[in-house]
Amino acid sequence: MRTLARRARHAFPLSAVTAGLIAVLVGVTSSAAIVFTAAEAAGASPGEIASWMLALGVGMAVTCVGLSLRYRAPVVTAWSTPGAALLAVGLDGVTMAQAVGAFLFSAALITLSGVTGWFERVMDRIPVPLAAGLLAGVLLQFGIGLFTSMEGDFAVVFAMFTVYLLCRRWLPRYAVLLSLLAGGLVAAAQGSLRLGSVELALAAPVFVAPEFSLPVLVSVGLPLFVVTMASQNLPGVAVLRGDGYRVPISPVIGWTGATNLVLAPFGCYGMNLAAITAAICTGPQAHPDRERRYLAGVWAGVFYLCVGLFGATVASLLATLPSTLVLAIAGLGLLGTIGGSLASAVSDEGSREAAVVTFLATASGFTLFGVGSAFWGLLAGVLTLLVTRPRRAPAGVAEQTADEPPLEVPPRDPLR
User: Fold this and answer.
1) Percent of the chain having pLDDT more than 70?
2) Half-sphere exposure in the Cβ direction for 253 (13 Å, CA)
3) Which residues does residue 77 pair with via DSSP β-bridges, in sequence order?
4) How far is C-alpha 200 from the chain's CA centre?
5) pLDDT per residue over 261-297, tens digit each?
6) 7-32 burial, b if ≥16 CB within 10 A, otherwise e?
7) Among 75, 99, 192, 305, which lies 20 to 30 A Cα-Cα from 65?
8) Which of these, 86, 96, 83, 102, lies nearest to 213 by C-alpha position?
């Protein structure tokens, strides 16, 4: 019996389960409404909208569980939030069959990126401080949101923050979980948490045969690929590498693209490496032993599967959760990662200015040509580094040190 209990604790560490649950909670509540809007823009029926959630949930479950177990690292995937925002505008007047054709085209390009390995070669050339600055910029809004959300509901957020601080002192492994419970209890006492209105219903897959329209492929499929790679996969890689996980990126990108390719006819429009939600699973709050944090990725996949299976009930569930509670728990769960990223970004004096530029540009939320600030922030940082980096001395020329006096040149004899 004791052996069974030990095995259960080994396979179901509470901190990893909590990290996986919070990652899914933050991911779904922050962007599911955008996915629904994108599906409605293509004229999806309620059954097709539920099928979208089912396909996305199954795809994220398969990739989270499979890739985390394969590489023993917390590889967390997500649907493309900027991609959904793009679709919400770009699918107006497009049939569902044409939309599915665009999904397949984008997924094929992502798969090709993984197979050829070009994306990983680009990522390998990015200095660590710039990647850390990029990550800190992406996560900054959630750290700030922890405190701005106090304006909307001070009692809930302050209770969560107080419990978090007390637990960090005496129960650090359970700080985030107990903060979530405290917020839920206060919200229930206020009457802002109404779980009784949620109705459970299973989602069913709906297959849509693709139709390939060149204008739709160019105007929807290609931009969907660009924003998924630049605004999602790029910071997703930065999260993994920022916490020291040297996962082979090409196979991971290839598998997300292939899974997307298979599930696209059922509504899986875009999948990628997660950034914000992944950071919840890669930090010390997920597990004190970094070699065991892959379990947080596995549990995130389990909870994503539940979201997919009950896709028809997600909208009603979202309506019961106060937005301030979600913002607060995201901020608390990411405090450690934000701090570590900032420390890594400014650790190297030679690239400190470039890392700060990357951080500020990314945190600004600047968008151009439909591509988010993560890409432009990194580009600004790389340009800063290239311009400000001191030139190396020519080969064979010794550099003069600060404590070495300059060489004295004797005056020239005019008679010689």
Assistant:
1) 87
2) 28
3) 273
4) 28
5) 999 999 999 999 998 889 889 988 888 888 999 999 9
6) eeeeeebebbbbbbbbbbbbbbbbbb
7) 99
8) 102
